[in-house]
Amino acid sequence: MSRAGLALDNLRGFVVLMVLAFHSFMAYMASLPLSPSPFDAPPYDWQAHPIIDKRRWLGFDLFGAFQFLHLMQLMFLLSGLFVWPSLVRKGTTPFLHDRVLRLGVPFVVGVFLLMPLAYFPVYCVRSVDPTWSVFWSQWIALPFWPSGPIWFLWFVLVLNIVAAGLYSLAPRTKELLGRLSVYAGNQPERFFIGLVTVSALAYLPLAAFFEPWQWVHFGPFAIQASLAPQYAIYFFTGLVIGSGGIDRGLLVVDTVLARRWPFWLVGVFAAFLLWIFPAALIVRGQDTALAGLEIARGLGVVLFAGSACFASIAFFLRFASMRRPILGKISENGYGIYLFHYVFVIWTQYALLQIAMPAIVKGAIVLGTTLALSWAVSVAVSSTPAGVWLMRGERRASMAKAR
Fold first, then answer.
1. What is the pLDDT of residue 382?
2. Count of domains in the chain?
3. 58: how many CB neighbours lie within 10 A of its CB?
4. Which pLDDT score, from 0 to 100, does residue 403 have?
5. What is the pLDDT of residue 178?
6. Lowest-confidence range among 124-128, 242-246, 290-294?
7. Which residues lie closer than 8 Å to 64 by C-beta, 6 or more apart?
8. Could you tell me the CA-to-CA distances from 20 to 343, 366, 373 in Å, in that order?
9. Can you give the pLDDT at residue 37?
10. Angle at CA 351, nearest 5°, toward 348 and 353?
11. pTM
């Protein structure tokens, strides 16, 4: 594997680890409500805060905000990197067949099997009759089918279908993507400005009507209304960057982006400050007295997401372009870990509710338990021929066999 490929593999493993940490620490954030909301009544806040523990730590709030503002954008960007080379290699029909099976089947299994199992403790905390039969009757009576983190799969599948349509119906797209990929490698700062500008134009109008944490539901299909266009933009940004191959353009290990990693890192913290100050004033109710706070907060969101994604890629290209065994193994099993982790997160948080220990210790226990168990299940599922293809794909399966 090339140095750029190793850097991206390590980054993917790190991102999976951050997703697990984000969900593991959510029960212990200082900003959570004092008591859980009802399970069977609007606004169904338990989707955002499944388990609420009395032990809190403000540091988890800062960590959560940091991840919430960019982690999904980075995941969509990474998801788009190998789409165009895969289309070129396989062709439209085999590509779509592969995507529907690898994303659609786990989505169905996750939503209709794993999510009821994951959310059962959430019901038990809020109910006087914690039995499965009563839970199931309330579950199917909900006006939507909760999908938890699995929502990511259906939206990525839709974006892959759109990309396949462009490949099939617009042959000149390849030429345009090639030019943009070269431009991104030669002028990363200008490419970044273009990305942030497009993101702002897509995000700010919707942010005036929807908060970032507000979701819309269509049966089992859920999405954040204000952030959905951003996710699509970052997916196609990844498609542009990866269209020329991972060893060219923006992803070259010694390119301008990697050499200027301190610049991007400073930009991350500057953008975070731009977001957190107006966000804090809005929480205190000063948005009516100070004009422009909502716009400033929205600009902070798009600037932070862009700078954090570029900083992450630059940092890993510069310092992690060699094999890192732990991150590499997490990346190899990353899809399965992501698919199964939410069950173990919620059940472990539920098991620790009545145990008196500091929030930091509880968060560490949940993260360690979740990583170990979801990793083990992923390895077990991947031991079968169908499982290894669904969980790791052809490329990762062949890499694991070669190692």
1. 87
2. 1
3. 11
4. 44
5. 83
6. 290-294
7. 22, 25, 26, 29
8. 11, 9, 12
9. 86
10. 110
11. 0.93
Q: Reduce the DSSP state of residue 247 to 3 states and report it.
A: coil
Which pair of structure tokens corresponds to residue 170? 């617009």
Please give the pLDDT value at position 397.
45
Residue 152: both structure tokens together: 């990511």
User: Which amino acid is it at 85?
Assistant: P
pLDDT tens-digit map of 254-274: 778 888 889 999 999 999 999
Higher pLDDT, 374 or 207: 374
DSSP SS3 for 172? coil
Contact 6, 321 (CB under 8 A): yes
Domain encompassing residue 80: 3-402
Closest CA to 350 of 33, 38, 46, 40: 46
DSSP 250-311: GG-TTSHHHHTHHHHHHHHHHHHHHHHHHHHHHHTT-TTTSTTHHHHHHHHHHHHHHHHHHH
What is the token pair recorded at 39?
Answer: 């399970």
Tokens 């948005």, residue located: 287
